[in-house]
Amino acid sequence: MGKITVVGSYIVALVIDTERIPLEGETVVGRNYHSTHGGKGSNMAVCAARLDAQSAFMGKIGRDSFGEGFISLLRREGVNPDGVLFSDQLPTAVGMIIFSMRGTNVIVIDMGANADFLPENVIAHQDMINSSDVVLSPLEIPLETALSAAKLARKRGAKTILNPAPAVDLRRCDLTSIYALTPNEMEGRISVGLNADDPIDDVQLAMRLLDLGVENVMLTLGGKGVIWAYPGGVKQVPALQVDVVDTVGAGDAFNAGLATGLSENLPLPECIALGVTAASLSTQKRETISSYPYRTEVDQAIEEVLRRIH
Asked: Is 252 among the catalytic positions?
């Protein structure tokens, strides 16, 4: 069992359904209000634990009931909470989501304590990173914090994964500490300074991302799987064929699966297949946390993906 530390984010989602999205200044009656756990870092840490990794979370929350709920989630899912830090100035991050009957939505996010998670916090708690096999970060925290964690991890010989979501232009960043960069198509374009809708070919995009200085690029393509670009060439890893219900959080499942494979020193194609299989299976259920599969489910389905790698 390998050790993965997710240096990342937690966001509680406050969700309500309405007949339609209200106009500015309008009040409408909603229903089905509920809160749910969110944030890419939280999703990745829980999914990795379900895949039998020794998972730990490092990030910052507020001193409030939402933060307490998050710590309870980590303990319930078997994720080490020792890296959870508290902001004395900012609350736990919150996303307010309104869904309409037409399938549209509006989302407002206050990044809260995530924005207060700084490189010096990582350095002060680097013992957790020093003992890790893999360090994984999304970008719902400051970029400088994610890169600081990656640099510390690589110095200790750990593998590092940067999931550039939300995307930023990475062309002026030192990414030599990054073992794997894992954007989706839109995030990949923004990462190399293109518009999100630029018509660049996916393989060409993957190679341009590789030129940023990382060792590997795993460009995630939703139902089409993953393009893996590395100095020796390009391979395509297809998605598992499933009945898709909800794709939210599938990218986080991919990153957790990839990290789990790397932490176990599996061959890289198997690591990617583990991530693809976990992501594919997660789309069969709604929500994020509740959709993430356990390792036995992934092991039963992964051979179909491995057979189709080309």
From this structure: yes
